[in-house]
Design brief:
Blueprint (H helix, E strand, L loop, with lengths): L1 H56 L5 H38 L13 H23 L5 H85 L21 H26 L16 E7 L22 H22 L9 E6 L6 H13 L5 E5 L7 H5 L8 H5 L11 E4 L2 E4 L8 H5 L2 H11 L4 E5 L8 H5 L5 E7 L7 H10 L6 E8 L42
Parallel strand pairs: 1-8, 2-6, 2-7, 3-5, 3-6, 7-8
Antiparallel strand pairs: 4-5
Helix pairs in contact: 1-4, 2-4, 3-4, 6-7
Length: 563
């Protein structure tokens, strides 16, 4: 029963607290609205007063009506100005006419000045009378003389009146133009006045809208405070049915499922995140190719010459040497199988060594495999066929030759014997030579086949250190002469995507007699930044063209390159 009472009291306290919070929020909102209403009322009064003062300053009540009045005034001014200018021209005409034509009729023109108009009419009558009298009397006729004097008097009076009227008309035109300019200025100011007045009225409208909104919100807050109801409502009264104990079986089942799912999920995520080959068990995904062996990572004491990459010697019995012996025996088994099924009279003795990308150890495998084959008292030739990035001289710590395989393929050397160098008993080396600008075309030429035809009869085994197949296509050109292909992968360096890549190469028939060798096993290698997919690989680091085919110099001895 204590639990039921606790629930009831908890619900009551919750409702009381919710109502108090709601009232407090409503009260704070009401205070804010009252303060804002005071400010908005004052601002609204200021805007309305500003609008009133603006109308007074610009002398208008309604801009549309005022604009019509200004336009009508301007139209009247234009008509009057036209009449005055016409009258001015007529007066000037009369002035010039009287100055040039004495005692002649003045043309009948409309003169606004009625007195002047009557004077012109009387003058014309005297001219008619004078002409009539003059035509029938002599020059000494007193009537004609009298009429002549009257005409001269009238003419002078008319000229004086015309000049006076011209001055008056000019003054009227000047005043009228001033009025017209003032009216034009008022008309031009109407858009500005309208824009400024519209801005003022817009502010008034915004503040009036905000004022109405705040009044509405104040009424809503008052209604909210008047009708506060509990936030929670009890659907069913709490009751107690006794003590409830935990279900042990359900707890055990849940923890058992967690114990099974969590490690499985962790292992699965680890498998998804591990993108590099970790050990030789990852090579189980190979379909066509076989695994010819694995080579442990070489340490300082494994090298025959501290400055080279050679770890195989006739008097050496190290672990890595035994691994190369195992690889040699597995490879000989493959080559023996090839001899039993091959129709070539010279036997199968060409071993092509390649990899997916650089730095997987194909040069290291090539030189030590060639040396291991020579220890069987067999004549072995090691060819550096990576014409783009030759590494034999650097790996064996020997002088880089100025002539080599590229020189032979380019037709710059007459005999292959000029290029062969004896490195150890039963082991000769044919270096790559200068880096050509067209390595793929040279390897595809007829002199490559001619070279292998000559070598088959002179050497028991030919080991070819070629370029990575995931980067360039040079190796596919040479693979037609190979009886076995040793495909090198490196532990903790080669991506797992290389395995389906090799499977595709074998299934498509682009490489035959493929055997995979896993290099640098037993320790974690340094991670690389190479990225590649199953069918397309990126090629980075120092593997690039260096055009030094003509005039390439020889290199000196170098230190051992870490593979």
């Amino acid at each position: 029963f204590l639990g039921a009472d606790l629930l009831r009291n908890l619900i009551n306290e919750y409702n009381i607290d919710a109502i108090a919070d709601k009232n407090a929020t409503a009260h704070a909102t009401a205070l804010f609205i009252e303060e804002r209403l005071k400010d908005i009322t004052q601002e609204l009064n200021e805007v309305e007063e500003q609008a009133e003062n603006y109308r007074k300053a610009n002398s208008f009540t309604d801009l549309t009506t005022q604009g019509g009045v200004y336009l009508n005034q301007r139209e009247g001014y234009d008509r009057t100005l036209t009449e005055l200018e016409t009258q001015l021209n007529l007066l000037r005409f009369i002035d010039r006419y009287l100055a040039d034509n004495a005692r002649r009729l003045i043309p009948a023109v409309k003169i606004l000045n009625s007195g002047l108009h009557e004077m012109i009419g009387d003058y014309n009558k005297l001219v008619v009378e004078y002409n009539r009298v003059e035509s029938g009397a002599s020059a000494e006729n007193p009537v004609a003389s009298q009429l002549k004097k009257q005409l001269e008097t009238y003419r002078n009076n008319i000229l004086a009146s015309v000049k006076t009227e011209i001055k008056t008309t000019r003054i009227q035109i000047g005043d009228l133009k001033k009025e017209l300019a003032s009216t034009d200025d008022k008309i031009r100011r109407i858009p500005t006045i309208d824009r400024e007045y519209t801005d003022i009225m817009r502010q008034r409208e915004v503040k009036a809208t905000l004022f109405s909104f705040l009044l509405q919100k104040r009424e809503e807050i008052n209604l909210t405070q008047a009708g506060v109801v509990p936030k929670a409502r009890t659907i069913a009264s709490p009751y107690s049915s006794g003590q409830v104990s935990p279900r042990k079986s359900m707890v055990f089942i849940m923890f058992f499922m967690l114990a099974m799912l969590v490690p499985s999920a962790a292992l699965y995520l680890t498998y998804l995140l591990r993108t590099r080959i970790r050990d030789i068990s990852d090579l189980d995904a190979l379909h066509g190719p076989t695994v010819v062996g694995d080579i442990a990572r070489a340490v300082e004491g494994d090298f025959c010459d501290p400055a080279s990459c050679m770890v195989v010697a006739s008097d050496c019995d190290s672990v890595i040497t035994e691994m190369f012996r195992t690889m040699r025996n597995n490879l000989l088994f493959m080559l023996g199988s090839c001899e039993r099924n091959h129709d070539r009279g010279n036997g199968c003795n060409v071993v092509l060594v390649t990899s997916t990308i650089p730095k997987e150890g194909k040069t290291f495998i090539s030189i030590n495999l060639a040396r291991m084959l020579s220890l069987m008292d067999k004549k072995v030739l090691l060819i550096g066929a990576d014409l783009r990035n030759p590494q034999l001289a650097y790996a064996l710590n020997i002088v880089k030759s100025e002539r080599g395989l590229s020189s032979w393929l380019a037709g710059m050397v007459a005999s292959v014997d000029e290029l062969l160098v004896e490195y150890a008993p039963n082991m000769s080396i044919l270096q790559a030579g200068p880096i050509p600008p067209n390595p793929n075309e040279l390897l595809s030429g007829p002199r490559m086949r001619e070279l292998f035809d000559m070598l088959h009869g002179r050497f028991d085994y030919v080991v070819v250190d070629s370029a990575p197949v995931g980067v360039v296509s040079d190796t596919f050109v040479i693979s037609q002469y190979a009886d076995a292909v040793v495909y090198v992968m490196r532990e903790n360096y080669t991506q797992k995507d290389a395995i389906p890549f090799v499977n595709n190469l074998v299934s498509d028939g682009r490489l035959h007699g493929v055997a995979v060798a896993l290099n640098a096993t037993g320790v974690s290698g340094k991670m690389s930044r190479y990225k590649y997919g199953a069918t397309r690989y990126g090629y980075k680091s120092s593997y690039r063209y260096r055009y030094e085919y003509v005039g390439a110099g020889s290199g000196g001895k170098g230190g051992r390159k870490k593979r």
